[in-house]
Amino acid sequence: MNTDRQPVLGILGGGQLARMLTLAATPLGVKTLVLDNAADACAGQISPLIRADWEDHNALLAFAGQVDVVTFDFENVPVTAVRRLAKHVPVYPNPEVLAVVQDRLSEKKLFRECGIATTAFQVVNDRTGLDAALKAIGVPAILKTRRLGYDGKGQFRLKTLEDAEAAWSSLGDFALGHGLILEAFVPFDRELSVLAVVGRDGQCHTWALTGNWHIDGVLSLSLAPAPGNESLREQATTLVHHLAKRLDYVGVLTLELFVKDGQLIGNEMAPRVHNSGHWSIEGSRTSQFENHVRAVLGMPLGDTGMRGHAAMFNWIGSLPDEKAVLATVDAHWHDYGKQPRQGRKVGHTTVCAPDLATLRMRVGTLAQALGRQDQASPLTKHQGYGPAN
Ligand code: AMP
After folding, report:
1. Which residues contact 235 (CB under 8 A, 6 or more apart)?
2. 142 Cα nearest atom in ligand 1
3. Ligand 1 neighbour 217 (Cβ under 6 A)
4. Is 220 near ligand 1, meaning CB less than 6 Å away?
5. Backbone φ/ψ region at 129: left (φ over 0), alpha (ψ -120 to 50), beta
6. pLDDT along the chain (389 residues), means of 10
7. What's the CA gap between 362 and 155, in Å, rounded?
8. DSSP result, 72-92
9. HSE on the CB side for 318, CA within 13 Å?
């Protein structure tokens, strides 16, 4: 790294994750440079941004020449482009990690190699293959695109065998290009995620286990630490450590898990900072964003301990009343500077408290003021865990 000037962190993708990485990098004396194919990418409001297509070789070379290290705000950057970049500048996590996570099949194989249980699955390449897979797996099941799916997109839930035709109409086109995968539906008791950060020297820390609730496949609420027994935390920590070691990983790594009858089942992983770790900005001694910046730049990692209890609400489609959030004790407003649009993540709020009872009270009052009692109900109506979905 160039030592006579401020280090520059290059970020591929300019969404809210790049924006929050920039916000964390600035006090560390680290500059950022974002590359995105959209000129209005929201990280560009607070960081210099190069607008270029992923396949624009010259733009990528120019980008590499201006940064000390490259990292990601999203994982669907073409691997060939990233491998090319890695010849000119260090890239963390390494490009081979992207190659694995861009395909649900290779991701599931990796999970099994690392001792992470998965639900039953079958590859589907054509309509007959879907029938064969349904015969093997049964219903309920979920048909998913192997590539480019996120936030529940590129998925079709089959409740009965009669849903096969509708599933094929919805996703069959993907079978030709990138293939599909049919997964047995997991009637999970709850969903968790575990976030780890790995330094360039191999040092690894994890944050508290996080409980997650989704609506229509999109994260709605996260709660940390997730109430539950200590043995789950130990198991999840061991699993994410195995993954990190196997992948020679540097940076923040997220593993999403289902819990069924006390057993952990791997759903998917993200090679980056993750929505379910946003609470760590105010709820942890060092946020996922700061520790990711520290890790990829080879700095010492920060303490990942909790400051208390935290609940994170995603604002999807549009933002609620900012004043009601700001009027709540230890509640924190994050506006991503995006245009409101149906299904789009436009911001989030984290509410913190020294204990779970106080958190429940603060969240209950805020949810009522915002008319969001449903979104808060897993925390307010139940003892930490409500219905799974
Ligand atoms: P994904 O994009 O694969 O993480 O899916 C988004 C959400 O859909 C997950 O967080 C779960 O709530 C749900 N989901 C995905 N796969 C399954 C499955 N095999 N069984 C039950 N629920 C699932």
Report:
1. 264
2. 19
3. yes
4. no
5. alpha
6. 76 98 98 96 98 95 97 94 96 96 96 97 95 97 89 87 95 83 96 98 97 94 90 96 97 98 96 98 98 98 98 98 98 98 96 97 98 96 49
7. 35
8. ES-S-S-HHHHHHHHTTS-BS
9. 4
